[in-house]
Amino acid sequence: MNEFALIEEFFADCTRQREDVILAVGDDCALLTVPPGYELAVSIDTLVAGVHFAAEVDPAALGHKALAVGLSDLAAMGAEPAWATLALTLPEADRAWLARFAQGLSGLAGSYGVQLVGGDTTRGPLTVTLQLHGFVPQGKALRRDGARPGDRVYVTGAVGDSGLALQARLGELPLTPEVLRYVEHRLDWPQPRVREALALRPLARAAIDISDGLAADLGHILERSGVGAVIEMESLPLSESLQSSLEPTQAWNLALAAGDDYELCVTAPAESHGPIQAVLSALGCPCTLIGTIEEELGLRCRLQDGTPFIPKHQGYCHF
């Protein structure tokens, strides 16, 4: 099976067809239409076997997650997903593997109206690169530089579960079968907060998705905005699985530094608290107030009694 047969069989029609796509898979470039009054948001992520996932991973989960991490980036900007391009490096053209990978990719793409419009395939170590494109009204994107002193800091969902799953897979921590199933699903099949982000866009000032760890990712907002923040440790949203598996200090360290959660961290003015809770509750998404933006630079974590909490790690570092 050559490159063109591979593309035609597994990827030419694996996602929905959009009206704003003039020309998609099968030519040197895709031809696309950006609607008037909107800006184009573009993100790209690479997943490498042995670094971001185990080589024996379920191909469907890999296809899902490769798209999910890009959708999460679009969500962090408050952008509506539209198109994707895929660069896939394979050790061999395995039809069964490719069918499962395309199944996972197309399943999530269908949920968010994403069309695969092009890409590339090569032979080599297993590597997946997906570029995502989305639309955001002009001047309305949620950016990292929008936080202001007095803003409240919120986190969607729960954080730390993926880190717990990774510890279990590395043999560092035994978990009950029930907890292991739950946290491994969170790690392998993340659900990007796209709909939640679109609801938050009129209410929030700054946002980021939690991929490298809450402390590191919130730190990016603080740096770009020229502000600091105080985080209340007992307020961190932790799942029952995480709380039942670790002591509080260990759980907080995972929640702050483990990453791979793909939840959203947003800052918003105090008057947005009620509306934020209302719109996310309507979507069935928990949203927790964890701290406050301050003028003093840096991130400060503290306990209820005012004692400082110093994280063991600051987040995932690629190099």
From TrEMBL:
Could you list this entry's UniProt keywords, alphabetically sorted. Answer: ATP-binding, Kinase, Magnesium, Metal-binding, Nucleotide-binding, Thiamine biosynthesis, Transferase
Q: Which Pfam families match?
A: AIRS (PF00586), AIRS_C (PF02769)
Q: In which pathway does it act?
A: Cofactor biosynthesis; thiamine diphosphate biosynthesis; thiamine diphosphate from thiamine phosphate: step 1/1
What would be an example GO MF term here? ATP binding
Q: Which residues bind Mg(2+) 2?
A: D45, D73
Residues given in the record as Mg(2+) 1 binding sites: D45, D120
Q: So where does Mg(2+) 4 get bound?
A: D28, S43, D73
Q: Which residues form the PurM-like C-terminal domain?
A: 148-299
Q: Which residues bind ATP?
A: G119, D120, R144, S211
Q: Which GO terms describe its biological process?
A: thiamine biosynthetic process; thiamine diphosphate biosynthetic process
Positions binding Mg(2+) 5 in this chain are D212
Query: Catalyzes what?
Result: thiamine phosphate + ATP = thiamine diphosphate + ADP
InterPro entries assigned: PurM-like_C_dom, PurM-like_C_sf, PurM-like_N, PurM-like_N_sf, ThiL-like
Q: Which positions bind substrate?
A: H52, D260, Y316
Q: What CDD domains does the entry give?
A: ThiL
Q: Where is the PurM-like N-terminal domain?
A: 26-135
Which amino acid positions bind Mg(2+) 3, per UniProt? D28, D73, D209
What role is this protein assigned? Catalyzes the ATP-dependent phosphorylation of thiamine-monophosphate (TMP) to form thiamine-pyrophosphate (TPP), the active form of vitamin B1.
Q: What else is known?
A: Reaction mechanism of ThiL seems to utilize a direct, inline transfer of the gamma-phosphate of ATP to TMP rather than a phosphorylated enzyme intermediate.
Can you name this protein? Thiamine-monophosphate kinase
Naturally occurring in which organism (per UniProt) = Nitrosococcus halophilus (strain Nc4)
